[in-house]
Each structure stands twice: as structure tokens, then as C-alpha cells.
């Protein structure tokens, strides 16, 4: 009786089409092949349990369920404490362990697919079905094991980039509920002595909501005070006030050459000094800095695939300086008005150019570029261009932000991304005009009050003041650059606006759509004006090139 049952069970196993497909019809064999591939895709190890090595299958299922558990935990953490999750992933040792795990999972999943192919037994399939099954297997392996391997590679790239860009050190605590970062665009070209940050702004971010304010600091700002606890307060007790030699963007190199010993524990004394000056100007405690090398800025924009900006007016691409003069050759090219996608070279000159106009036009364009980069650095761009972006970041970004707090800052950036960023320029048009020398003789009580109003949410009260100051003065605007002109090579005379720019510029700058105001302007006409050195007409025609917005 027992022998009969054993014989019956053995016969059943031999006729089971799942484990013994040779006895099944060709259609069943084909269906079995696709089902086993599907099982390996959605539940790795299950194909082995039902049709192959059960011991291997059970071990693979244990790994699968363990991975599912950690994925569920990560999802819960992402919903409850996103910053902590990012801090774990960006931590040096944790990211290394995760990278190794991804590599092992990729290899294990690939081996399971190959084992599934052996279980399928391709010779038993119809000849026309064999390449289809093999092709599907290859696609699934690339999508699963290949995806995990690429994730490990991206994690390794990010580990290298984070380790290069970010500093090691204690975490920052918010001050009065906000983080205050100083962003500088450094330009240390061959024709310059040291680094002069021509683009300077402080980004103040609410630590809970991510709401942000950008305070832009003109490069020719003078008399910057220093907080009482700054080592420069003893060197410059009345502020950085030695005249045109002491404009704000010269402070970095001055400290690096003469007072670096005042910041013995800092890797970048010049940046520390710039933060102290910004703190004194705004009445805020600036906690960290980010320096972007403007020479390499175009690399970062290209790595992002370009940025889209609605440019308000024509912007010249400045040519080299004429030897022995403070003038430039006619521009190498022109950036037209209108919405356009800029590559790195174009975006760099859009943010850098100030020929025939003022620093305040350039500041407005720099703010637009910053906003465009934040708005357009979406997850899809990061995923598809991560390696190029990370490599560019390693080359051009320098910061003292602590790596261990990267998760908190990324979480704040994600919150800020969906909200409008308020802006305030510590100079015209928000403080004074180009003719009344506000940046040369600033009213710090007024600045501190306006900054405090914006931070406390009293934006409406803060906006009333520039609305009253907005009308252009009757005095010729050309007087301001003469008094504010710095002593370095970037203050070329042709870049100063003339008296023609005051009245017409106010009108053209108010035009939101540049098309109607500049439809008769051509590149040939602008180039002709530059060649005959008609700076007055050019300053009038270009006066609205600070009217812009992210595309």
C-alpha cells in the first residue's frame, strides 16, 4: 500500500509541468517561462521555491523580505523625519555600507535571474520563443540589477562630492529661528590679484517653514561695520571706511593678505571676514558661507542642461579691456530679451555683465539666475545629470557648511522650492537711488529696520519705503558712479549710466514685456553704438536689462 502511494506521488512529480516542463505542451512551457521571470522580478526567490532549488529560494526570500522591511522603514522615516533620512544616507560610513549592500543585491538579483533561466530550460521552448524570453530576461536584469548598480555608483559619486565640498565640524543651530548663509560669486581671473567676490548675498531661511529672503549686497558698498565680537572690529572700529579702496568686495583679499592671523582656526579667513561684514550690514548673524567660482559657473549650468530665464533687455557679452585704458573693445556678442534657455556660457555672462549699466542691474539679473537654478534643479534633472552636477560642484563650490547637517539643509531647500523667495537689495532701488550715494554713506539703522521688518513678516511695511523712493531724481545719474567707482579694473567708465538713462531708463525699466519697447533694436545697431562709443544711448537702451524673472 505504502509502495503504491510512493509510486503514485513520484509519478505526480514527473508529470508536474512546473518542475518537469518536458512533459507539458509547448504553450504551457511558454507560459511557465514568463511566469517564472515575473516571479523573479516581483518576489526574488519565489521562482526557485516553486520550480528550482528550494533552499536557494528560501534564502533569497529572506533577503527579499528584509529589504522590504528596510524600505518600509525608510518610507516611514521619509514621511516623518526626511532630514534624518538624508543625514543617514549622506553620512560617510552609512553611505559606504549602503553602497556595498546595493552592489551585493545587484549581483544576487542577477544570479537569481540567471538561475531562473536555467529553470526555464530554453531548449524546451519553441524556437521562435527563445529569443523573446532571452530578450525579456536581459531587459529585466538591466532594469533591476543594473538599476541597483547605478544607484551604488551614484552613491559613490555623491560620497566623493560631499566629502570634497562640505566641511567636517559641529552642526549649526538656527539663530532666532533662522539659518543665514552668505553666497559669494568669486572671480579670481588671470587679470585680477586674488579673489574678489563680485556677487554677494545673504540667504535667510526660516528653519521650520523654509521661507527665504535674499539680501543682495552691492560690490561697491562702503563703510561696512563689524560686530563687536569680530576680530576686525579692533582693526576697523569705524567700519571698513578707507574710501574707494574699501569697497565691500575688496575685503576678502585684504584680509587674506594682511589679517589672516585674526582667524587662526578658519580654513578661509577672507570668507569669515565677509560674513562678519554682512552680519554688521544686515544686523543678522551670518553662520556659514558658500563660494561659487564664477569661472566654473558655466560648467554647473551646462551640467544642469541649461536654465530658462525671461530676460528683460539686451545684455552685452563684454570683450577684453583695451590696453592702457579703462574701456573695453566692442562686445563679443549680445544676449537678446525674451524667454530663452541659456547654456553655461550665456548664463555666466548674463549674471556677470554690467557694461553700459550699473551694479544694480547686474544684481537683479544674478537674483534671477539664482532663482532659476533653484526652480529648475528638479528630481528628474538630478537623477539624469547627477554625475555631471556633482563633478561640477566639486570643482567650483567651496563652503564651510557641515556635511553632517546636509539632510537638514536639503529638507529646507525642498520646502523653500515651492515658495516665492522675497528679495531686498541693500542699495538702489530698495534703498535710495543711483544718484544719492546710499551705498557710499549707508544708513545702517534704516537697513536693520527694513531687514527686521521682512524677517518678522512685515513685508508690506517694508515695501512701502522703496515705493516712495522709487521715482528717479532730477540730478543726472552719471554723478553716482564717479563717486562710487572702486579703484579696481572692474569700474570702467563706459559702464556708468549717463544722464540720458535716468528718465528713459525709468520708463523702459517698468516695461514687463521687452518686446514692444525694443522691437526696433537689433544686434547690428547695438554693436554700431558700441563701436562709435555712444555710451549714453547704450545706457538708455539697456536700462531695462535688470527686469527679468525665472523662465
UniProtKB/TrEMBL annotation:
Keyword Protein transport found: no
Record-annotated membrane-spanning stretches: 33-51, 63-80, 92-120, 132-153
Pfam families with a match to the protein in the record: LytR_cpsA_psr (PF03816)
Keyword Transmembrane: yes
Domain (Cell envelope-related transcriptional attenuator): residue spans on this chain: 196-377
Keywords: Membrane, Transmembrane, Transmembrane helix
InterPro entries to which the protein is assigned, alphabetical: LytR/CpsA/Psr_CW_biosynth (IPR050922), LytR_CpsA_psr (IPR004474)
Annotated coiled-coil segments of the chain: none
Compositional bias (Basic and acidic residues): 1-10
Compositional bias per record (Low complexity), positions renumbered to this chain: 460-472, 482-497
UniProt region (Disordered), positions on chain: 1-25, 460-517
Family under the similarity heading: Belongs to the LytR/CpsA/Psr (LCP) family.
UniProt-recorded name of the protein: LCP family protein
Organism whose genome encodes this protein: Arthrobacter jiangjiafuii
